[in-house]
């Protein structure tokens, strides 16, 4: 084990859950968890977590939950909460999900944020979508249909909902297709088609898309040859 990793483990073992929560909320690049130039503090901490003993893992998990419950937009940076959300996602800590959902629904104004907040907010929402817990599925379904929720997230929500229920793709897609028709230059069709096909299969996605007359459905269909190439290449690599 590298000396730097031993320092990180020692820091986490010796610090209380309360102090760890405060440390996380300070949002100072997670110093003193040292990291290489090509590795962020978030990724380093998630990696270190796997080398901790069971008691220290429980303490870190508790600290993550406490930091979410104690986060205050008037005091703490959104980037700090985004770091916590990403760490929780990387170590598959689902205990923070209800708290993150509550914050998204009660404390965030989803229109008119700064670009920096947009990025941090996207990380938080993405961690909720990716957790796929019952609470997350319910929230994502609700947000996807909510006109008050920033439409820019509908691609993420659509992919998430299809990942939860691939057989419901035909029911899920219309909301996104309508949004893409209104904002044709915002979404990345190749990415959307590739991600959705991961859960439905390229054949099934193409079959579903052909049932729609939206211009955006045609745009997604045009991506399918490339999507198939990607899938075939991944099979050869595997």
Please render the helix and strand layout as text.
Layout: H1 3-14, H2 17-26, H3 41-49, H4 54-70, H5 78-90, H6 97-106, H7 115-131, H8 134-145, H9 154-164, H10 169-182, H11 189-200, H12 202-209, H13 215-221, H14 224-237
Helix pairs in contact: 2-4, 3-5, 4-5, 5-7, 6-7, 8-9, 9-10, 9-11, 11-12, 11-13, 11-14
How many helical elements?
A: 14
Rg from alpha-carbon coordinates: 20 Å
Task: Please state the average pLDDT score.
Answer: 90
Instruction: Report the end-to-end length measured between terminal Cα atoms.
Output: 30 Å
Number of domains: 2
Number of strands: 0
| Low-pLDDT residue intervals, each spanning 5 or more residues | none
Amount of helix: 55-70%
What about the largest sheet? Answer: none
What gross morphology would you assign? globular
SSE pattern: HHHHHHHHHHHHHH
Instruction: Report the sheet-strand fraction.
Output: under 5%
Structural class by sheet pairing and helices: mainly alpha
Fold and architecture overview:
The protein has 238 residues and is mainly α. It is 70% helix and 0% strand. The protein folds into two domains: 1-131, no CATH class; 150-238, no CATH class. It has 14 helices and no strands. Helix 2 (17-26) crosses helix 4 (54-70), helix 4 (54-70) packs antiparallel against helix 5 and helix 8 packs across helix 9 (154-164). The two termini are 30 Å apart.
